[in-house]
Amino acid sequence: MTRPAPKTFHVKSFGCQMNAYDGARMAELLEGQGMAAASGEAADLVVLNTCHIREKAAEKVYSDIGRLKRADGSRPMIAVAGCVAQAEGAEIPRRAPAVDIVVGPQAYHNLPALVAEASQGRRALDTDMPVESKFAHLPRRRAQGASAFLTVQEGCDKFCTYCVVPYTRGAEVSRPWRQIIEEARALADAGAREITLLGQNVNAWEGEDEAGRAQGLDGLIRAIDRIPGIARIRYMTSHPNDMRDGLIAAHAEVASLMPFLHLPVQAGSDRILKAMNRSHTAEGYLRLIERVRAARPDIAISGDFIVGFPGETEADFAQTLALVEQVGHAQAFSFKYSPRPGTPAATMADQVPTAVMDERLQRLQALLSSQALAFNRASEGLVMPVLIERDGKKPGQRLGKSPWLQSVLVDNDVPHGTILDVAIISGGPNSLQGVAAAQKAA
Ligand code: 5AD
Ligand code: SF4
Fold it and tell me: Which of 254, 262, 356, 397 is deepest in the core (most CB within 10 A)?
């Protein structure tokens, strides 16, 4: 059965920042086709840009599909994109027949053709991972607000035994230097003041500059630092084994490179790290953090942790807590281990009972929250530059980010994109509150 080509769309992204980036690019692509953004199931086309990292995230898509029903019983055209699309492919419409399109994270430049196919009443599926990059087929970047994401590297060759990413995003690929610099310039022209360079292993980025010289992520950062309008640069997520000297030095030398490092360690026990195939030790990680702090003493450290990896004993877990105590985090994410189909860890012996995982997660999160609160409290009384990104809830209030990625609420109505000196009055568990420093002095 044919149906009218969709005129409006809604993209809903889950999961990591790379998915948020892909969602923004899909929206630009559809706008370029003359479609207009709309909200929720009222849109003619709804793209669910999914995450497969843990079971809960992956299962969510099916309940979301069920909810995409309008009051009159009709449904929008439904596209499932992202990592669940890649991992489950044709299985998705078998389980959820309302799905019209399945498109993987390396194939979404084909979305307009897939939409045309679905309009002809055919189910459209594309989970190819073409050698030729999707980036060559995407339109120029548009206004994104004060802070924008830019994917520079995708995929993973590390094969941590718990992780689906090498299967859903494919092998490690670095985007070419020129393409990245051009995209960064387009973002700056569109008003971005901050760029966050994204990659599953962003610090593994490598390439050649315009002169044909070999460069790493630090070279790319230094080149983006020279683009007029760009005041702040961040990058995530990094792998400890790819944290090279040049990048550490850049933290000491490049003023626009923000003092924040998201460097997941996952666990504090060498036995568990080995079973995870992390190929670094807890001690190696701690030494690395010391070197980064020597280069940039005020750097805020963030990370990811998994509790209850198969075989994790109470003694192993105690070593995770000990590592967290030693590092002192500004913030961190922690998760219960979730067995993922097709990964080596899913079939390992000694899977940890849920109740044990729950209890360990609670203890870890209590420690991490107390560290985050201590970090935010230590900001009280400081004056810091805050990049204003959006309106706060109350009139005249703005929300922005500190150099250390803390959310800052300011009672001031300066335009978005302003970097405002803010005197911090109070620091809570999740955010800081302050007033414009000039206002305070007056
Ligand atoms: N179970 C739980 N957490 C996971 N992560 C990745 N795979 C799994 C899994 N199978 C976590 C890791 C990673 C973050 C993005 O998600 O901590 O760094
Ligand atoms: Fe989720 Fe990983 Fe895919 Fe990001 S790359 S959406 S975290 S599965």
Answer: 262
Report d(CA 345, CA 129) in Å as an integer. 25
How far is 102 from 125, CA to CA, in rounded Å?
A: 5
Q: What spacing in Å lies between the alpha carbon of 51 and ligand 2's midpoint?
A: 5
Atom of ligand 2 nearest to the CA of 49: 6
Rounded CA separation 359/308 (Å)? 10
For the chain, how big is the Rg over CA atoms in Å?
22
Nearest ligand 1 atom, CA 164: 7
Assess contact for 180 and 208: CB atoms under 8 A. Answer: no
pLDDT tens per residue across span 364-410: 999 999 999 999 999 999 999 999 999 999 898 999 999 999 999 99
For residue range 63-79, what is the model confidence (pLDDT) as tens digits? 999 999 999 999 999 99
C-alpha span between 59 and 79 (Å, rounded): 16
Q: At 327, list the tokens.
A: 């590092």
Number of H helices, E strands in the chain: 14, 21
Q: 13-17, 326-330, 387-391, 436-440 — which is least confidently predicted?
A: 436-440
Q: Mind listing the domains of the chain with CATH numbers?
A: 8-126 (3.40.50.12160), 135-377 (3.80.30.20), 383-441 (2.40.50.140)
Q: In what order do the strands lie in the sheet with 260-262?
A: 260-262, 300-307, 331-336
Residue of 21, 53, 159 to mutate, ligand 2, most atoms within 8 A of C-beta: 53
H or E segment to which residue 79 belongs? strand 77-81
Tokens of 268: 């504090």
Cβ atoms of 266 and 227 closer than 8 Å = no
In this structure, which residue's CA is closest to atom 6 in ligand 1?
163
Distance CA 248, CA 12 (A): 35
Distance 436 CA to ligand 2 centre (A): 38
Return the half-sphere exposure (C-beta side, CA atoms, 13 A cut-off) of residue 126: 20
Q: What is the dihedral of CA 236, 239, 242, 243, to 10 degrees?
A: 70
Q: Is the CB of 41 under 6 A from ligand 1?
A: no
As to burial, measured by CB atoms within 10 angstroms (0-12 exposed, 13-18 middle, 19+ buried), residue 113 is: exposed
Q: How far, in Å, CA of 430 to CA of 376, rounded?
A: 8
Please give the distance of CA 196 from its chain centroid, rounded to a whole number.
9
